[in-house]
Amino acid sequence: MKLSYKLLLSFYLAVLLWLVLFKFSFDVVTVIEYHQTRTLNLIPFAGLSHTTVREMIENVVVFVPLGLLFGIASRPKKLWQKLGIISAVSLGVEIIQFIFGIGITDITDLITNTLGGFIGLGLYALSAKHINSEVLNRCIASILIVIVAAILFLRIFVLKVRY
Fold it and tell me: Is 163 a member of any domain?
């Protein structure tokens, strides 16, 4: 795999962690010190509401690019191995949230994050059957760079984040 794809994967993981753990806050120390809400939910899909369904959809959406990038980045591994890595990333995020008390550690998040990664892997596999892999990889990388750049631009120059 080319170095540029590894860098893009690493950068996306960093942005994903910043989003999930700190909600794009620049003041990470304050988030850790003053916004501690250590909560653990081990009941899948408990307390469904309009808000939780929206959050589940958001979780799926933000992990789809991770699945696409793993499609590009990983050498021919089996789907379950790639999905296991994506699940491990999600589990790691949930554990970090619990340890630092900076969010709700929720089994539903683990499930929806993994589902998003699975969708990304599936989209990549389906597309790779019909599109030259180098063209597909460049296309996915270009689109993700534009999306991440737009998100970062909006966060830095437009959006006010309250954690």
Answer: no
